[in-house]
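Single Protein Entry

Contents — chain, fold
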Amino acid sequence: MASNIPKFRFLTAAQVRRLHGTLIANAQPTQPALLESAVQSPLNIKYYNNEQNLFQLAASLPEKIMKNHAYQDGNKRTALVAADMFLKINGYKLQETPLQTGNVSQDLENAHVAVCTNAWTAEELGRFYEQSAKAIEEWTPEILAYRNEATEY
């Protein structure tokens, strides 16, 4: 019997550490358990809350990364690139190039700061993602590698 519940790909803590190391700084999390907790958040929300909206799941990841503060520095940037990769491995993108300058990047940065300062909820961030994200037209080798390593659920 086929299930109508969509399956999504979820990043692993190792993948988020790799994104941080590649795009932010060559540093390990000072609180690895808090990073693991943050990375598990979208999976838990899908399972326990039966959340089927990809963008709401995506928004829970950066919220937890920023608030858990697993890294000494770069948590907001890590949260942004992790959310973007989470959406990319599921067929959407927030930005062409991670951490680019420009309106989209500035709006994303502002949205993340709003969540960090409790001006926005993760749900509001999810709605922002849904309005901002674009379908991926070309699957790059990097996105495919992350997609293939991700957890499917």
Q: What stands out?
A: The mean pLDDT is 92. The domain at 9-147 is CATH 1.20.120.1870 (Four Helix Bundle (Hemerythrin (Met), subunit A)). The longest strand covers residues 9-10.
